[in-house]
Write a structure and sequence with these properties.
It is a single chain. The protein has seven helices and nine strands; from the N terminus they run βαβαβαβααβαββββα. It is of the alpha/beta class. Strand 1, helix 1 and strand 2 form a beta-alpha-beta unit. Helix 3 runs parallel beside helix 5. The longest helix is centred in the N-terminal third of the chain and has 14 residues. It is globular, with a radius of gyration of 18 Å. The structure holds S-adenosylmethionine. The site of S-adenosylmethionine has 20 residues, from strand 3 and strand 5.
């Protein structure tokens, strides 16, 4: 079992498979100088699978694929298939903006994915376009239908609570979720320009969870393990003697609570 210094059991690995995204959401890409990871530094599927295998041997049982947009990574279903072969991984999930989901849902399910979280902050098509930069709401709605029809369930909807979206609009999203059997998760908007993290959340949000219950570590697309979303410390697997040593070091770096957001965008760490 993987334990940190505060006796929290770490069993969840969140993997950013790419920092590329097909959207540019207003709350994610807040720094214009966001520099993409050079292509040659991005981990291959074989490397990611080997990391997950080692992580599973240490006690990881849940893996989430995220990004950037994980469906922008070519042949992502091959990675899902590889990870699914690791018996100790009991839960394999993916977070997506849903735009390409209609095309990929069946492939993902067939490869062994358990379920998806889909990011959707509003069901107003104009607002949706405004938030995401360019996307078409209908593509996401069709993606949700496709995920339902192939059985990628339960589907969770990630809604970042933005001040400029009215409560009335959020009620419409809630109704939509109820009608369609979707589980709505309200996410506190983290202001990445300020970078500070406060663990004092009111009861109005489902995410992020309290630090005291944290069970996660994060892997970036170029092989860095972050102990926390709000930590500037990381361990680069490529610089360590072994993958297991890198994971153990990263877990030992976990602080009791996060402090500063060191990234240029959520897309670089995976949200
Ligand atoms: N592209 C995928 C998607 O859109 O779901 C996965 C990556 S995205 C960075 C992962 C999650 O981070 C999404 O649910 C997104 O809403 C959330 N996120 C991004 N920026 C955020 C912010 N500033 N505050 C809170 N959540 C944020």
């Amino acid at each position: 079992m993987l334990k940190d210094r505060f006796n929290r059991t770490i069993k969840y690995l969140r993997i950013s498979v790419t920092d590329r995204c097909n959207l540019s959401c207003c709350y994610c890409l807040v720094h214009k100088e966001f520099v993409k990871i050079p292509r040659e530094e991005i981990l291959s599927f074989e490397e990611i699978t080997e990391i997950v295998r080692n992580a599973a041997e240490l006690g990881i049982t849940k893996v989430r694929l995220t990004g950037g947009e994980p469906l922008c990574r070519k042949n992502i279903e091959k990675l899902i298939y590889n990870i699914r072969q690791i018996d100790a991984i009991k839960e394999l999930v993916l977070t997506t903006n849903g735009v390409l989901l209609k095309k990929y849902a069946k492939k993902l399910k067939d490869a062994g994915l358990d379920r998806v979280n889909i990011s959707l902050d509003t069901i107003d098509p104009v607002l949706y376009k405004q938030i995401t930069g360019s996307a078409n709401l209908n593509d996401v709605l069709e993606g949700i239908e496709a995920a339902k029809s192939v059985g990628l369930k339960p589907i969770k909807i990630n809604c970042v609570v933005l001040l400029f979206i009215s409560d009335g609009d959020r009620e419409k999203l809630k109704d939509f979720c109820v009608k369609n059997g979707l589980e709505l998760q309200l996410i506190k908007h983290m202001d990445l320009t300020k970078g500070n993290y406060s663990r004092e959340y009111s009861g109005n949000y489902d995410r992020p969870p309290k630090c005291s219950g944290c069970n996660k570590i994060r892997l970036t697309a170029d092989g860095k393990i972050y102990p926390c979303l709000f930590s500037s410390s990381f361990i680069s697997i490529k610089n360590e003697r072994s993958i297991k040593e890198a994971i153990l070091k990263a877990v030992s770096l976990k602080e009791e609570e996060g402090s500063v957001f060191p990234h240029m965008a959520m897309a670089s760490i995976g949200g």
